[in-house]
Each structure stands twice: as C-alpha cells, then as structure tokens.
Design the sequence.
C-alpha cells in the first residue's frame, strides 16, 4: 500500500518538474496577473475624469459654477466648447467623458425666478467614470442652486446664515460606506477578480493533468502505478498541485493584504486557512467535471466555460439577487462564489466566523463532491477512448 | 528577367492561395476549431447578454432602525420604500439587530433615525438620517445612495415650500434646476455598458484560441511524422502568414456581422452605429488579431494547452480596454501595454460608434492605430514563424533523421511517461504520414 502511495506521489512530482507549463500556470502567471490587477487599480478611486464645459452665459453665476467644478476631485475640466455640437463631437471622439451645459441667460433667469436648467451630459457607455461624473455634476449644481437661494433669502434679512442652511436642507442624510469609506475600486474588484483568475488556473491545470493521461493513453499505467486505486492515483497527481497552488494563493493573499493594503479586518488565519480549502474546492470541482464528462476536450471546455463565465454569473458586479433566477442558480455551483462571499465577510467586514460558516462548508462540499463519481473516471482510465 | 520576376510573383500568389485553401480545409475539418471560430461567437454574446440582461439592481434590501417613531420618520421610510432602487424589508429594534441582519445578508443597508428626529425638523433645525451600506458590491451601494438622495431631495423641496409660505419672498426666485442627460447608454444599464466591449473581445479571443489550436494540431502531426507536417503547404514565411490570415478574415465575416450587429438587436443594446463604418473598422482589427494569434501560437504546444495558455488573457484584455477601469485613470505603463492589444482600440471605437453614434472619421485614430498594429503584429508573426517555429521544425527533422522515435520519446519524457504505451506502434514513425492531394 505504502509502495503504491509513494509511487503515485513520485509520478505526480516527476510530471510537474518536467513540464515547464505547469510552473508557469501554477506560480508565475497567477502571481503576475494578481500584480497586474493590483497595480492597475492602485490609485483606488477613479478621479479627475476628463470632462468639458459649455458656457453659453459667461456670467458671474456660470463662472462660479465652473470654479467650483474645477475644485472637485471627481472631474477635470479639460476644455471649453463653444456650443453643444462641439462638445458632443468631443464625446464621440472620446476626448471627454461628459460635459456640463450652462444655458444662455442663466444668471438673469435664476435671479428673476424663471428656473433655468443646467444640464449635464454623461457618457454612460463607460460606467465607472459616469458614476463619478454624476456625483461631481450633481453636487455642483445643487450647491449652485443653494448658494443663489441662500443669497436671495439672506437679502430678505429674515434669516441668519445657519437658518438658511436648515431651511434649504431640513433633512441631511449621511451615507457611510462600511469598511471602504474611500470607495476604493481596488478593494471591491480585486477581492473577486483575483480569486476568480486563480480558480480558473486551478481548474484548467487539474483537468489538463488528468486529461493528458487520457490523451497519451497512459491512464492505465497511471492507475496501475497506484495499485489500481483511483484515489491513490489522484492523490499522487493532485497533492503536489494543491501544495503549490496553496503557496501561490498565500503569496497572492500576502500581496493583496499586506503589500497593496487591501483590507484584512478579520483574524488573518481565517483567510490563510480558507486558501487550501479554496484550492481543494476548485480541484474537486474540476475533478467532478472530469468524472461527469471523462474526456479531455469536453472536460477542459466545460471548466473553461464555467471558469470564464463565473466572473459574470457569480455576481461580482451585478448583484446575484438581481439576475434571472437560473443565472443565480448557476452561480451557486462554482467554488469561487463562496470564496468571494467569504472574503467579503472576513477580510472586508471582519465578521465573526459564525456568519461565514456556510461558505466554509460549501467549499468542503466541493472537495467531497467528486468521490461518489470517481468510478466513472476509473472506468474511463481502464478503457480509454480518446476523441481527437 | 522580367518574366522570371513575374513568375516569382505568380508563384508567390499561388502559394498564398494554396495556404489559404488548406487553412480553410483545416478550419472546417477540426471540431475544436469550428467550436472556437463559429459556435463560441454564436453562443457567448447571447449567454453574456442573458446574464446581465436585468441591467440594474432593483429593490436593494435595507432595514430601518427607527428610534424616533414619528410621522416624519415614517414618511421618509415610506418614500424610500417607494423608490425603485431600495426596498425596506424590516424594522429592527436596535442597531445591533440591524447589524446582525446585515451580517446574515438579509439586507445590504441600514437606515437609522435618531431619537428626536421629527422634533428637530419641526423646531426648524437640521435633522440627520444615518445610512450604512455594505460595500461588498459597489452596485448595491450606488443604488442605496441614489434612493436615499432622491428621497432626501424630494422631502427637502416639499418642506422648503411649506416653510417659505410664511416668509415674504418669491419662492421660485433664486433656483436653478439641474438635469442629467445620459449619453450612449440612455437606460444607464450595466449590460448596455459592458456587453459591446465583450462582443469585440469574444471575436478576438475566439480567433486567438482557434489559431493556437490549429497550431497545436500541426505540431502534434509533426511529432508523429518526423518533424514534418504532411498536411501543410510548403510556402514562404510571408505567404504562409498572409494566406492563413486571409482565411481567418474570411471565416470571421459572418460571426462579426452576427456578433456586432445582430446580437445587440436581440437584447436592445445601443445600436446607433453605422454598420458600414463598423465593418470597415473591424477589417484591420481582425487582421491584427489574426497576426497576433500567429505570433502567440508559440505558447501552444498541443491542442489542449491552448486553453491554459490563452484563456486567462481575456480578463487582462478586458481590463486593458478600459471598460472596467477607465483608461484616464491608468498609469502610462498600462496605457502603452493596452495600446499593443487590438481589442483596446476596437472596443473603444466600437463602443463610441454603436452607443454614441460616432462616425469612422471621429474614430480615425483608433482605425489607423489598428492598421499600424496589424503591421507590427505581422512583423512579430514573421519573426516568430521564421526564426522560432521554422528553426524548431528543422531541429525536429534533424533529430528524427537520426532516430525516428526521438521526437515522440522526447514528448513522452516531457509528459513524464517513461515507457511508451502499447497503443503506439513503432511502425507509425517509420515513414511520414500520407499527405493528402493538394
């Protein structure tokens, strides 16, 4: 028994050492991808979105609005345009992401009670910068409105400075973004996309390493070396992968939470111990796919398809509860979703472990899932049929 | 002299034609390649569109902690519940209970009214509403923020009217109204913003995967035929690259029209672009992509390693295109890296055309950059083919001459298989496989 065990491990290690591809996709590329994403979003928030201004009034009021807008960090006025047509042309060319239009006779109309309209045109074809522009333009126009109303009311002499503000804004809402008060995009995108990429590599490597045995017709020898035990054979093949991927995962966690300063508000062990579970869960998932479709090509295709789509249907950007129920359901069958929820609970929100217990259990279920189906893979290995 | 030169040109063109013809034959006789070139382009746009088709998040769940229990706080909550963005699912007795519900994910926000909220308003002072948002997803935060801000503005305007009725000033005097006009994606939906970029990337990535898989297949044939691919047309480097590119170009005409023009119609995505302009833009894009595929093929050693080597690049290219993280916030390094990927230019130009109605003239920078990129990628593909791939083939043939089993033995050694399996026949390596008639 021990001999078979040793033989399997030896075979697995030899395969790893001889094929450069494994080292690349298990260590170099995942870490490089993580550094790329972290480095790309290092500034954190989207700031100084290039916008334009169309000032048809050129009055004191319109210039004050422009001065205030220049002071906002969300937008950066890169150009003045003489009219709407020129500004739209700049948007279509991609020079600016939006512009604010101050109509003719703005000041005159505002002071004579004709309620002029200041419009801001925001290019929503680019979503994140559009949100920033909306925030900047909305604040500025509201402030402009408030300042004119304040001047008018103060002129009546009935109200003090403080009184005017409470009159204009009797209710003030204070919105607190929990654990990410800077609205840092990196916190939110990298907690989901980096594990998503790692999961993709784990699943592809697992299916690839099992698939090559089927393809090269060596699966019989592979099973024989493990004493006709599929469990030993798989252990020998996948345990070294688990070890390397876990180390890679820890390295990525170190980069994320220590080097690039992503939040880690829980006991670090909660995340450190989640990593081997995550690696095993993805291997379990890929193995389940290979058991369901014991064919190199189809197994790999299935894992690629689910791995790539998991970025979308796991609800990394659009909330899962807002999707169609069937999309939400598919999202629940991939391990990365649970790791993502777990890292939100633990790393971002620092909740007690109790609240994340189900996600840890889900990861364990993925590890256990392939066991009842292993007989299918074994049967395929003993009687292989390679479909080119 | 002249006739000899003419002969060479004709010969070159004939080689080009033969390479093109053979590549078409390969593409339509390989199940995997058909899946990449045609099925993927057919299915992926629909699948992605279905995932994001709900466009936005409605009724994000929040709980209310009302320590005031006054008509004013109830009015705020009623108005908040009535917004399309937010849904009040429960009243919690205390902030602790609300935090428990937040941790259980039964809600994603807490709205809290401190004691004395109503009294403060009626005393003519400013009352505060505290809102706490879970930041697991930016989208939920955004929806809660919009809902709460709209309610606050509406209630403030209402109260201002009531209060000013006792002050002797013209109510409407000194007000400026503001209005947002969404451009491009007028519904402000996520799908309409993201999907046009995804469509371009589906075209690029499927082509790259297909090209790499074809190369993997060719390399496998070489292993079994003493370093010679019996099905390949012997032609010059440039003729080979151009012939293959022409083939991919031709195959992609229908998938391109379907993906960029027909698929947006299914889901009513922005489609104000001129189809002719879009197709003209796509010509250099497809050409640059096909050359890029022929440069990247060195990373695919067999058919299946294509998946591992190429799939992850989709995520990288999405980010480089600037659709998730805007290019205006990228560092110069990533801008330059992004400029070397055809999808970056094509995505931005296509989005501007299809969503904002830009013309090809307005996107001329992207268009000409795609031609430049096609040139750069051609040179890269040429260098790869001539100085890496062909040298490898010659080396393979050299080893195979000395020992017919050398190549296959080396391949098995790389796979850590020390004993050749029974199903590989020694006789298979004796002579090159039967080449089909050209």
Sequence:
């Amino acid at each position: 028994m021990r001999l078979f065990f040793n033989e399997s491990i030896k075979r697995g290690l030899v395969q790893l050492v001889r094929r450069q591809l494994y080292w690349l996709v298990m260590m170099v590329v995942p870490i490089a991808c993580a550094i790329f994403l972290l480095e790309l979003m290092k500034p954190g928030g989207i700031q100084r979105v290039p916008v334009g201004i169309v000032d048809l009034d050129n009055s004191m009021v319109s210039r004050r609005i422009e001065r205030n807008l220049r002071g906002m960090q969300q937008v950066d006025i890169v150009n003045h345009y003489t009219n709407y047509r020129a500004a739209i042309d700049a948007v279509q060319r991609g020079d600016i992401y939006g512009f604010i239009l101050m109509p003719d006779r703005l000041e005159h109309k505002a002071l004579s009670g004709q309620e002029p309209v200041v419009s801001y045109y925001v290019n929503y074809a680019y979503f994140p910068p559009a949100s920033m522009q909306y925030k900047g333009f909305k604040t500025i126009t509201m402030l402009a409105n408030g300042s004119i109303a304040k001047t008018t009311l103060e002129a009546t002499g009935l109200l003090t400075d403080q009184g005017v503000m409470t009159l204009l804004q009797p209710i003030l809402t204070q919105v607190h973004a929990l654990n990410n008060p800077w609205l840092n995009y990196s916190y939110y995108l990298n907690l989901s996309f980096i594990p998503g990429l790692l999961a993709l590599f784990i699943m592809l490597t697992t299916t690839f390493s099992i698939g090559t045995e089927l393809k090269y017709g060596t699966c019989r020898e592979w099973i024989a070396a493990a004493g006709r035990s599929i469990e030993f054979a798989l252990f020998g093949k996948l345990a070294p992968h688990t070890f390397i991927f876990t180390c890679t995962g820890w390295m990525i966690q170190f980069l994320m939470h220590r080097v690039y300063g992503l939040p880690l508000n829980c006991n670090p062990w909660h995340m450190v111990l989640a990593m081997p579970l995550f690696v095993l869960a993805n291997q379990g998932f890929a193995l389940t796919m290979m058991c369901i479709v014991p064919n190199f090509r189809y197994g790999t295709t299935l894992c690629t398809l689910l791995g790539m789509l998991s970025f979308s249907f796991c609800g990394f950007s659009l909330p899962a509860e807002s999707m169609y129920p069937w999309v939400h359901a598919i999202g629940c069958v991939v391990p990365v979703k649970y790791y993502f929820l777990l890292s939100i609970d633990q790393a971002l929100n620092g909740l007690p472990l109790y609240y994340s217990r189900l996600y840890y259990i889900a990861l364990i279920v993925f590890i256990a899932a392939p066991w009842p189906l292993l007989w299918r893979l074994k049967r395929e290995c003993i009687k292989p049929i390679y479909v080119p | 002299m002249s006739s000899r030169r003419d002969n060479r040109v004709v010969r070159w063109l004939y080689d080009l034609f033969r390479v093109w013809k053979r590549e078409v034959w390969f593409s339509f006789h390989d199940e995997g390649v058909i899946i990449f070139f045609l099925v993927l382009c057919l299915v992926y746009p629909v699948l992605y569109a279905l995932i994001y088709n709900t466009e936005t998040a409605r009724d994000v769940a929040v709980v209310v902690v009302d320590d005031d229990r006054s008509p004013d706080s109830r009015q705020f909550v009623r108005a908040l519940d009535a917004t399309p963005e937010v849904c009040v699912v429960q009243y919690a007795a205390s902030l602790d209970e609300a935090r428990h519900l937040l941790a259980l994910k039964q809600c994603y926000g807490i709205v809290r009214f401190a004691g004395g909220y109503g009294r403060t308003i009626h005393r003519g002072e400013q009352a505060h509403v505290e809102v706490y948002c879970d930041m697991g997803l930016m989208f939920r935060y955004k929806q809660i923020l919009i809902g709460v801000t709209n309610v606050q503005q509406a209630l403030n305007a209402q109260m201002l009217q009531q209060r000013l009725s006792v002050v002797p000033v013209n109510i409407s005097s000194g007000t400026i109204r503001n209005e947002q006009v969404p451009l491009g994606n007028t519904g402000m939906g996520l799908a309409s913003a993201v999907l046009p970029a995804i469509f371009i990337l589906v075209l690029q990535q499927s082509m790259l995967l297909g090209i790499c898989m074809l190369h993997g297949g060719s390399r496998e044939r070489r292993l079994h035929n003493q370093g010679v691919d019996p099905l390949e047309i012997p032609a010059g480097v440039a003729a080979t690259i151009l012939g293959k590119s022409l083939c991919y170009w031709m195959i992609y005409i229908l998938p391109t029209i379907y993906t960029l023009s027909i698929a947006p119609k299914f889901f009513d995505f922005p489609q104000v672009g001129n189809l002719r302009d879009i197709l003209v833009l796509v010509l250099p894009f497809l050409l640059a992509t096909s050359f890029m595929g022929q440069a990247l093929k060195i990373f695919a050693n067999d058919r299946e390693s294509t998946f591992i080597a190429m799939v992850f690049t989709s995520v990288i290219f999405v980010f480089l295109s600037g659709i998730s993280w805007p290019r205006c916030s990228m560092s110069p390094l990533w801008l330059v890296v992004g400029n070397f990927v055809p999808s970056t230019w094509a995505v931005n130009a296509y989005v501007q055309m299809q969503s904002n109605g830009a013309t090809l003239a307005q996107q001329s920078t992207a268009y000409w950059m795609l031609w430049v990129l096609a040139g750069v990628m051609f040179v890269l593909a040429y260098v790869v083919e001539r100085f890496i791939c062909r040298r490898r083939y010659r080396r393979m043939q050299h080893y195979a001459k000395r020992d017919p089993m050398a190549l296959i033995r080396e391949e098995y050694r790389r796979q850590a298989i020390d004993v050749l399996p029974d199903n590989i026949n020694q006789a298979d390596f004796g002579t090159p496989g039967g080449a089909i008639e050209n």
User: Anything to note?
Assistant: DSSP finds 16 helices and five strands in chain A. Chain A has two domains: 2-42+182-382, 49-168. Residues 185-215 of chain A form the longest helix (31 residues).
